[in-house]
Amino acid sequence: MFSRLLTPRWVLLHLLVVALFVATFFLGYWQLSKAEAGGGAVNWSYALQWPLYGFMGLWFYVRMVRVELHRDPDDDLPGNAVVLYQRPRIDTTGDPELAAYNAYLAELNERALGQRSSNGR
C-alpha cells in the first residue's frame, strides 16, 4: 500500500515538500529579524505568514498523499471499455436555418470520423 509512495516521482515530491516546509520557517525567521530591526508592521505580518504558508502546504500535501493511498491502483491501467458512437440527433422542429446548420455540422462530423477510421487510427 505504501509502496506507491516510494516511486522516484513520489520520493522527489517528498523531498521537495520537506525542503519547502523548512524554507518557509527560514523565511519567517528572516522576516522576524527584519521586524525586530525596525522593519514595521509588514515584516511582522510576513513573519507570521511564512510559517502558516508552510503548514498550509503541508496540509494540502497530506491530503494528496491520503487520496493517493485510497485510490484504486487499477485506475492507471488502460481500460477495455468499448465506447460506441451515437449519431447526433438533429433537431428539425424549430428554426429551419438552425436545423440546416446542425445537419451541416453532423455531415462534417461523419466525414471526420470516416477519415479517422480510414487512416487506421
Describe the overall structure.
With 121 residues, this protein is mainly α. It folds into 2 domains: 75 residues; 40 residues. 70% of the residues lie in helices and 0% in strands. The model has no long low-confidence stretch (mean pLDDT 83).
Q: What structural keywords apply?
A:
single chain, 121 residues, mainly alpha, 2 domains, 3 helices, elongated
Going by helix content, strand content and strand pairing, the class is mainly alpha
Please give the count of helices. Answer: 3
The tally of structural domains comes to 2
Report low-confidence residues grouped into runs of 5 or more. none
Mean pLDDT: 83
Percent of residues in helices: over 70%
Largest sheet: none
Number of strands: 0
Amino-to-carboxy terminus distance: 37 Å
Order of helices and strands: HHH
**Outline:** elongated
Percentage of residues in DSSP E strands: under 5%
Structure described in brief:
The protein is mainly α and 121 residues long.
Break the fold down into its secondary structure elements and pairings.
Blueprint: H1 8-39, H2 41-70, H3 96-118
